[in-house]
Amino acid sequence: MIKTSLLGDKPVNRIGFGAMQLAGPGVFGPPSDPEGARAVLRRAVDLGVDHIDTSQFYGPDVVNELIREALYPYPQHLKLVTKVGGRRDDAGGWLPAQSPAELRAGVEANLRTLQVERMDLVNLRLFDEHDAEGQLAEQLGALEDLRQEGKLDLIGISNASADTVRRALELVHIACVQNAYSVVNRGDEEGLALCEERGLAFVPFFPLGSAFAGGPRQLAADPAIAEVAARRGATPSQIALAWLLHRSERILLIPGTSSVEHLEENVAAGDIDLDEQDMQRLEDAVQLGDPMAAAEH
Description:
The chain has a single domain, classed as TIM Barrel (Alpha-Beta Barrel), CATH 3.20.20.100. The strands form 3 sheets. A 7-stranded parallel beta sheet has the order 3-4-5-8-9-10-11. It has 12 helices and 11 strands. It is an alpha/beta fold.
């Protein structure tokens, strides 16, 4: 199995780290153990993680500040990826922030809290594609302006249908797509196929199924996943991550955790070689869909 893939024109290890879970409950406020969160980040880099996915609206500010405190000055090879398009209210609710001015402010906030001059990649996180149809050119135009100003390197898009990705590709250069996808939620096969066709990174969120709907517990209860896990001496979550890595060379993973133990387990999934028999058995994994596929991430 290939261990690296491309994020834009940059080779990265295929298992990165999603930092969302480092914030407090509901991705709001500080964690109960800030030093433990910083230890996870440092251990991730020690294990070879070279891209971290974050956002200023995780916390808000909390997760970016933890990343800065743990890792600044950043290793030269480390890629920092963020997303804009959302904000939080005083109670922790998730609200859209989709205007060009709000997107610019979001990028600037990420630069400030991470203490960098340029983001390696910024994803436009769409909330309602129907509402966004008339705005997409202006939204991506705002990010392209920021790229021309040197404040970001690559542009991605998140929570977008294949048709929306196609429209985006007509407007600007897109490097990656972040959508819900997992062994138990394969609803975005068209989006993955488009990424393979166009040479884009496909970065699944909820790679273990939705954390809001049982996630790893659902995986462990699935007979096909449990059978392959037992045969490989691995956990069901590791098999779900390994399935994604074997499913397409364009897939990059950003599993998140606030536990060093779980982090090490996730990274070790990259060493699991599934064979044709395993992949065929995993075709029988129950497709649960994802009632929270459009939830914040």
